[in-house]
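MODEL INPUT / OUTPUT PAIR
PAIR INDEX: 1
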Amino acid sequence: MTHPPKIVIGTTPGNYGLNYEDIELKTEDGLKLAGWYIPQVGSAIILVHGYPAEKADLLPLAKILSTNYSILLFDLRSFGKSDGKYTTLGKKELWDLDVALDWLKNKGYEKIGIFGFSLGGAVAIMKAADDPRIAAVAAYAPFADLKLLGYDAYKNLWLLKYPLVELLAFWSKLFFDYDIAALSPEKAAARLQIPIFLFHQKQDAQIPFEHALKLKDALSQNPRAEFDFRETGSHGDFPFDFGQTLLKFFKKSLK
């Protein structure tokens, strides 16, 4: 789980007809993250990929959103072309997103939106709850709670799933010095008051729909929360209209 295979898709924004710059972000713990900056007039949006993908996975969305916004894509630690020997499934990835926000702020952007897919969506929600630089957040199939996701992963082992997840929690505390139970987008979502758009498909086998329902309940006090739950579609199966739906949300939320 913490040592996913390196995937490098090989395409760049240039393959989509976009002008871009290769950039390098340096994290708090000294890692170098590979990124692309697609300049445009106005506000900016950061796109955060899922597990175990890389930034090029989101280029089709970048193409659509770049009609109105500057775009920053980067590889999370240990993914794509970034440094790092392992992923922490959200803990230190918050540091990765932090330096991306710093980079855009140094460019002069005042309004920044975040879109995250799966793991990237979970990181985006947790970061948005504590960082006033984020004006709006959108997430595709984020997990609500890492422990719950562990139970989902081991569901075929019936009662054994409980000690296995506890062992995972102990292992993460021992080697990474954090408790996986503390990585909870659900708890973070309950503190969000900025615009948020949550997308999930009920047939998703990787991040079960139960996670979306928990996040929706956590967002019940946020009048600017929007939801799009589809009956069909698997994890990563972007509907044909998803890019335009996302663009519409950010146009309304980043005014």
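PAIR INDEX: 2
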Amino acid sequence: MTFWMLALWGTASVATLMLILWAIHLYLKNAAIVDVGWAIGTGGLGVFYAILIPGDLHRRLLVGAMTGIWGLRLGLYLLFTRIIGHEEEGRYRALRREWKDNLPLKFLIFFEFQAVLCTVLSFPFLLSILNPAPRIGWLEWLGAGIWLAGMTGEAIADAQLAAFKRKKASRGHTCQAGLWHYSRHPNYFFEWLIWVGFGLLALAAPHGYLGLVSPALILLFLLRVTGIPATEAQALRTRGEEYRRYQQTTSPFIPWFPKSRPS
């Protein structure tokens, strides 16, 4: 099958997953389940391509493992921190207030848009597996190394935040421990680093520059759309002046040493 035929099959499979999750969200009244579907769906596409496409076995195993591990870890983390035993996140409640009526239809469109996004973001996986080179090259190994650094950093940041939230005294306060002392969003930074690794996998393949669209899109979403802007707006609503002081001293994205608070 051609690149675009494979992408079409991928879109159809994730669209089906999102339709099921949309129906579940109507029962749960928690639209954050779309984030679980985004992670599982995107990572699952990498596994799907690795199984379906003939080619170098070692490359298929590498891409399938990287995408499958990433998608499963992130999907389970989101499931247990945003869905099971949790109320709907503030950013999705804000969407409900903004959209007002015809919410089931509007959320269906939103869920299915995520399916298309999953396919676009999976281009590096598809390009890498279609790479006709007989063995894994140095650029791909570099991408795998950056992916591992990103996975490790994100897992540490998530664990530090979870440990902070488990303390009763932390309620209503901002986590500033560990990696969160050096970045307001270390989890987002390391998530982007993971996608840089995926992009380098694709870059080793013919037309691999198309795979760089994914880390560029992830960076755009994190910095300007659904990542930092929505998260910080919610933090300011709930933590007010404490979070404003945190913004004044701590890097928004790339981990760096905090600066002195302005007088």
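PAIR 2 NOTE: The mean pLDDT is 93.
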